[in-house]
Design goal:
Chain B: It comes from Lentinula lateritia. The complex is a heterodimer of chains A (240) and B (139). Helix content of chain A is 28%, strand content 28%. By secondary structure, chain A is α+β, with helices and mostly antiparallel strands. In chain A, helix 1 packs across helix 2. The N and C termini of chain A lie far apart (76 Å). By secondary structure, chain B is an all-alpha fold. Chain B is built from eight helices and no strands. Classes of the chains: A alpha+beta (240), B mainly alpha (139). At the A-B interface, helix 1 and helix 2 of A face helix 4 of B.
């Protein structure tokens, strides 16, 4: 498993998927970088695998696109043979097999999430080595390291759709504000039995949290009230 | 067919061998190829060459493995059997050889590549027919 090769496009990212009662909410930021240049600031990292199965991609953009393409191809073949939509576990398993068998050449972290008839909503996390983990919520990408604490403290079971959407939005906004390789806007998909609803939150409408305050020099700065009383006094005559 | 989901060719470990220049006794054939040198024995020439060389084969293998997983072992087996039948050529090695059936099976019948335009024999008329036949039938 190599680090990104020189010049390779990096999906340094914050991605997330959370399951709730009737479906899953998946979300991602929208920045793709090549070193310090932002190659694409409105990327769509939520990739279609099947009608009710999507995957979030992080790591090398080329590697994850190749894997997602083959996953989509395989699921189409499965649908033809089985005659019905594949389960999320099938999709996650094929992505995991490809990630593991190619692990010496790939750098890809993928979250597969969706809804199927047998198991309902499910989220599967496939981190860098190619393991498969089912979790009620999963975060990934470089920005995820900054928000593990927030997610652990905030997540509650039994949430409905709106609370889950809010949770994803806040988590991604916090990750994007601290991680240099995540940013732009938030893209979300809500996947339920009835369909897939895409949500888009532009960069100026992101939820804002404590943004820092310059504390250095506070003690010597005059408070505003004092300044206004001083301005009533006429300037002092100075002898030259 | 190798039942693996490799997307790109794996980087081959560095090797050196006398297989290419060996005679029937397994040793380097000095009479035919000259004195033994390291240059003839080195097998690895850089990972890019191996990657490009094995590219089509790896993609084909991936598709066959997916077919095996979806339809069963019979599907890739039949395809490979058909290819082998089409490429079975009873003729002696003549220079211009086209195999339309094999091209159709491999999906190359509707594309024109550089190899088709700049075609031409790599070497002249066969100097040693016995050696050519040996290579062909892999004795």
């Amino acid at each position: 498993m190599h680090r990104l090769k020189q010049g390779e496009v990096n999906l340094g990212t914050s991605i997330m998927a959370v399951q709730f009662d009737g479906g899953v909410v998946i979300g991602a930021d929208s920045r793709t970088t090549t070193g310090s240049y932002i190659a694409n600031r409105v990327t769509d990292k939520l990739t279609y695998l099947h009608d009710r199965i999507y995957c979030c991609r992080s790591g090398s953009a080329a590697d994850t696109q190749a894997i997602a393409d083959f996953g989509h191809y395989y699921l189409q073949m499965q649908t033809q043979v089985m005659g019905s939509a594949p389960s999320v576990l099938t999709a996650a398993a094929i992505m995991e097999k490809m990630c593991y068998q190619n692990k010496d050449q790939l750098s890809a972290g993928i979250i597969v999430a969706g809804w199927d008839k047998k198991a309902g909503p499910s989220v599967y996390n496939i981190p860098l080595g190619g393991g498969l983990f089912r979790q009620p919520w999963a975060i990934g990408g470089s920005g995820s390291t900054y928000v593990y604490g927030y997610c652990d403290a905030t997540y509650q079971e039994g949430w409905g759709k709106d609370e889950t959407v809010n949770f994803v939005k806040n988590t991604l906004a916090l990750a994007m504000s601290r991680d240099g390789s995540s940013g732009g806007c938030i893209r979300m998909c809500v996947i339920t039995e009835d369909g897939v609803e895409r949500k888009f939150i532009p960069g100026d409408e992101l939820p804002r949290f404590w943004e820092g305050k310059e504390v250095l020099g506070e003690a010597t700065r005059k408070p505003l009230a004092a300044l206004s009383t001083v301005s009533d006094v006429a300037p002092m005559a100075v002898e030259v | 067919m190798d039942p693996s989901l490799r997307i790109v060719p794996a980087s081959v470990p560095k090797t050196a061998s006398v297989v290419e220049t060996s005679n029937s006794l397994g040793l380097h054939d000095t009479l035919q190829y000259g004195p033994r040198t390291i240059a003839t024995e080195m097998k690895t020439e850089g990972s890019l060459k191996d990657r490009l060389y094995n590219w089509e084969e790896t993609q084909d293998n991936l598709k066959l493995t997916m077919m095996r997983n979806t339809y069963g072992l019979h599907a890739p087996m039949r395809l490979l059997m058909e290819r082998r039948i089409a490429s079975a050529n009873p003729h002696m090695t003549l220079l211009p050889q086209t195999n339309l059936q094999l091209d159709i099976l491999m999906g190359r019948d509707e594309s024109v590549e550089a190899a088709d335009v700049f075609a031409g024999p790599l070497s002249g008329p066969p100097l040693d027919i016995r050696q050519d036949m040996e290579k062909k039938h892999r004795i």
